[in-house]
Amino acid sequence: MGLDEKGNEIPEKQQTGNLATAEESGDEEASKVGKRSESSVAVTEDEEDDEERKIELGPQCTLKEQLEKDKDDESLRRWKEQLLGSVDMDSVGETLEPEVKILTLAIKAAGRTDIVLPIPEDGNPKGSWFTLKEGSPYRLMFTFTVGHNIVSGLKYTNTVWKTGIKVDSTKEMIGTFSPQAEPYTHEMPEETTPSGMFARGTYAARSKFVDDDNKCHLEINYTFDIKKDWAAEKAS
Question: Does one domain contain both 68 and 152?
Fold first, then answer.
């Protein structure tokens, strides 16, 4: 027990009252923060698009101009040389825009031949593009080339809907790449398809390859199926 200003004893419950109130207030505040965190995770697709549109970068430069910039900064010069590697400067010319070509898309699953997906010129495969087995782990792998200039912050996004309801959204940062003749290969983290009666069926999806300048190098709109088993492999 403690004493008040007049020397009277203060009951213990009254002494701890302010502390309890503070703790309750803290709990309420923590709860509010938690709710704000949960709501911030639930970002709509439109908000994601708005966020990407807000990114504003400086003017683009050719490779030769980029090498000339900050040439007195030793660390930057070494980083640029490491990034560019053995790029033939005469072959890339003075082009500002990088050219990214997605060459192949493949689905890799243990014990099966890779499912190589042909990419239509218009980016819209006809019919169901591929079939996945329910409850199975798989990886998406793609190869691409970069020409003319450095592509900065290339990323892959994929959005999936079933019966008009958004059921999945993926965003994977691929990286920054210099132009070269040999193709690059990137393998996505392993995923597992959902399983069960409600998971099976036809899905609609949209995949994009976009860089830091918000330039879309490829957009694919397609449908795919999840079934009890993989589609039969074609005889070679």
Answer: no
My answer on whether 103 and 214 are in the same domain is yes
DSSP 8-state class, residue 235: P
* pLDDT tens-digit map of 38-66: 333 333 444 455 444 444 444 556 655 66
Residues in contact with 146: Cβ distance below 8 Å, sequence separation at least 6, in sequence order: 98, 99, 100, 177, 178, 179, 180, 184
Q: Is the pTM of this model over 0.85?
A: no
Q: Is residue 46 part of a domain?
A: no
β partners of residue 144? 102, 184
Residue 218 burial class via C-beta count within 10 angstroms: exposed 0-12, middle 13-18, buried 19 and up: middle
Q: Would you say residue 232 lies in a domain?
A: no
Q: What tens digit of pLDDT does each residue of 60-72 get? A: 566 556 656 666 6
* CA distances to 58, 63, 174, 230 from 83, in Å: 19, 11, 15, 41
Neighbours of 209 (CB within 10 A): 21
Buried b (16+ CB within 10 A) or exposed e, 17-56: eeeeeeeeeeeeeeeeeeeeeeeeeeeeeeeeeeeeeeee
Instruction: Give the three-class secondary structure for 175.
Output: strand
User: 30 and 141: one domain?
Assistant: no
Greatest Cα-to-Cα distance within the chain, rounded to the nearest angstrom: 97
